[in-house]
């Protein structure tokens, strides 16, 4: 095998399901917060579609399908929103058949979140394929 082959996890798009835990409707919804950055507008949407849902919960689930290169910025936006709202969120990350869930709170570092997501996906993928991971 050669080292020029890209990591299969890095090449596949990531599907994220972000679920904020908020007690009341925030001044700025997470979706609006993320959409402040134009590169996320076409790839991040509300799972409930336009409108609908329970009062205060229209932003309850957000779906994003992004390349790995966009994950750091998306995690930074999520972390800054969680910090500002003093709330928490869960992120379910799926690539191919592999899925992991991470929790985000005011003590979570976005760089560490990215590292945790990448490592958890590698481990889950290795477990599915029956290969061993080093480390």
Descriptive account of the structure:
Pfam families: EACC1. InterPro entries: EACC1. The chain is an alpha+beta fold and 135 residues long. It has one domain (14-48, 58-131). It is 33% helix and 23% strand. It contains four helices and five strands, in the order αβαββαββα. It has helices at 8-11, 30-35, 71-85, 110-129, and strands spanning 14-21, 44-46, 62-66, 88-95, 98-104. Strands 2-3-1-4-5 form a five-stranded antiparallel sheet. Helix 3 packs across helix 4 (110-129). The longest helix has 20 residues, at 110-129. 21% of the residues are buried.
Q: Key features?
A:
single chain; 135 residues; alpha+beta; globular; disordered N terminus
Residue share in β-strands: 15-25%
- Give the overall shape, derived from the CA principal axes: globular
Distance between the termini: 20 Å
Domains (count)? 1
Question: Helix/strand-derived class?
Answer: alpha+beta
Strand order of the largest sheet: 2-3-1-4-5
User: What percent of the residues sit in helical stretches (DSSP H or I)?
Assistant: 25-40%
Rg over alpha carbons: 16 Å
Give the strand tally.
5
| Mean pLDDT level | 79
The secondary-structure element order is HEHEEHEEH
Largest sheet descriptor: 5 strands, antiparallel
Name the poorly predicted regions.
1-6, 50-59
Give the number of helices.
Answer: 4
Pfam family, one: EACC1
InterPro entries: EACC1
């Amino acid at each position: 095998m050669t080292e020029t082959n890209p990591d299969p996890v890095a090449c596949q798009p990531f599907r994220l399901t972000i679920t904020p835990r908020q007690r009341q409707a925030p001044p700025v919804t997470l979706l609006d917060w993320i959409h402040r950055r134009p590169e996320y507008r076409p790839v991040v949407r509300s799972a409930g579609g336009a409108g609908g849902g329970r009062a205060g919960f229209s932003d309850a689930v957000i779906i994003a399908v992004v390349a790995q290169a966009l994950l750091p910025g998306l995690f930074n936006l999520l972390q800054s929103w969680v910090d500002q709202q003093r709330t928490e969120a869960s992120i379910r990350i799926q690539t191919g058949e592999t899925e992991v869930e991470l929790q985000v709170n005011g003590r979570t570092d976005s760089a560490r979140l990215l590292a945790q997501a990448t490592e958890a996906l590698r481990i889950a993928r290795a477990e599915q394929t029956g290969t061993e991971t080093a480390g």
